[in-house]
Amino acid sequence: MAAVKLYGPLASTATSRALACLLEKQVEYQLIPVDLKKGEQKKPQFLAMQPFGQVPVLQDGALTLFESRAIVRYIAEKYAAQGTIGLLGKSLAERAVIEQWMEVESQTYNPPSSFLVFQLAFAPLWGIPQNQAEIVKNEKKFSKVLDVYEKRLSESKYLGGDEFSIADLSHLPNTEYIVKATGKSELITSRKYVNAWWEDISSRDSWKKIREMSKAGNKK
Amino acid sequence: KPQHLALNPFGQIPVIQDGDFTLFESRAIAKYLAKKYMGQGTDLLGSTLTERALVEQWCEVEGQSFRGPAFSIIEQILLAPILGDSRDEEAVKISVEKVGKVLDVYEERLSKSKYLAGDFFSLADLQHLPYTHYLVNACGKGDLISSRKHVKEWWEDISSRPAWKKVAEKMKFK
């Protein structure tokens, strides 16, 4: 069977979200880099696949699919019988709770954490001036969100319940940058249950592999 | 208040209770209901793995690209006066441009496909109903929709569904 193609740079949180799922499900894939600095994602060839000009895009046979969280759900469903089992829960109710926390990640966790990652990790690299007032605002917002996570994870090993699911997986990329690249790791490490959950999910083989690939990529 | 926080620790609405099962996040609720009641009423999720994937894709587009700027417009035009704030016209202008750019992509998509995920009405279209309803009927931004031929046809189609009409009747923003 031809390998699935994933277009996007590994450094993009959305791309690594999709890749983490491919790795969890042990799907053969080809990662095709997209040069964002050169604006490759806004060129006609790419727009033909993803009309919003964003990464990543998945090609699986005749299907072209975008939006990392949609890619995650598709891969988890299509390859349900292989790799890590139970990523979508074992019942309608379990799946619903997983979807609830997928939405929380998408609507509530992602915005302030992405903002902090951009401002603290990338803006300095790219010579973009930081917005201190907004950084403070978003850090407060993100802290409040993490307080809710702390309570949830004190009652449940993973966000969706007793087992690792796509809900936890979706949080890997942003949290990695928060902990490793913003100088604000204590947001995660100072919270007992959030920290334990982070240690657990980030030490999975899939995420270790992505870390290895990132290191190798940075050596070029 | 504590009673509601016990249901949704983020202090947001809506929440559903189905027996002793509680769920929050409207998109997760919609998906749960669509799955639980598959086989009655309208099928909203597509019939094949590929169709389901495309439904998920366009649901994500709504959540990631449409919702943000649409809400910013609603926030400035409808909510600011209620909160005693002045309208930030610059923010409205920027958000109107952003929504416009997203709708340009929708225009292209809907010129080739009757609904967002394919030729069937799905959760992806449904998710757009509430904010678009306010943009068109309460914010005076109907031209975002009516100036785009296929988006306009799509909006007229989905907003005239009986289920939506029942909900829209009750959405009076004061």
From TrEMBL, chain A:
Check the record and name the PROSITE patterns matching this protein.
GST_CTER, GST_NTER
Molecular function in Gene Ontology: glutathione binding; glutathione transferase activity
Keyword entries, A-Z: Transferase
Which biological process terms from the Gene Ontology are attached to this UniProt entry? glutathione metabolic process; response to toxic substance
**Where in this chain does the record put each GST N-terminal domain?**
2-83
Instruction: Give all residue intervals belonging to the GST C-terminal domain.
Output: 91-220
Q: Which reaction does it catalyse?
A: RX + glutathione = an S-substituted glutathione + a halide anion + H(+)
Q: Which Pfam families match?
A: GST_C, GST_N
What's a GO cellular component annotated to this UniProt protein? cytoplasm
Q: Give the EC number(s) under which this enzyme is classified.
A: 2.5.1.18
Indicate whether Transferase appears among the record's keywords: yes
Top-level EC class, please?
Answer: transferase
* Similarity comment: Belongs to the GST superfamily. Phi family.
In Swiss-Prot or TrEMBL terms, this protein is called glutathione transferase
**Protein source organism:** Picea sitchensis (Sitka spruce)
Query: Lineage from the top down?
Result: Eukaryota, Viridiplantae, Streptophyta, Embryophyta, Tracheophyta
Automatic annotation (TrEMBL), chain B:
Is Transferase included in the keywords of this UniProt record?
A: yes
GO molecular function annotations of the record: glutathione binding; glutathione transferase activity
Q: What domain of life does the native source organism fall in?
A: Eukaryota
* Stretch forming the signal peptide: none
Q: E.C. number, please?
A: 2.5.1.18
What's its catalytic activity?
A: RX + glutathione = an S-substituted glutathione + a halide anion + H(+)
Residue ranges of every copy of the GST N-terminal domain listed in the record: 1-41
Homology family: Belongs to the GST superfamily. Phi family.
InterPro entries with a match to the protein in the record: Glutathione-S-Trfase_C-like, Glutathione-S-Trfase_C_sf, Glutathione_S-Trfase, Glutathione_S-Trfase_N, GST_C, GST_Phi_C, Thioredoxin-like_sf
Give a yes or no for keyword Membrane in this entry: no
- Keyword annotations from UniProtKB, A to Z: Transferase
Q: GO CC terms for this protein?
A: cytoplasm
Gene Ontology annotations of biological process type? glutathione metabolic process; response to toxic substance
Where does the GST C-terminal domain start and stop, copy by copy?
A: 48-174
Q: Please give the name of this protein.
A: glutathione transferase
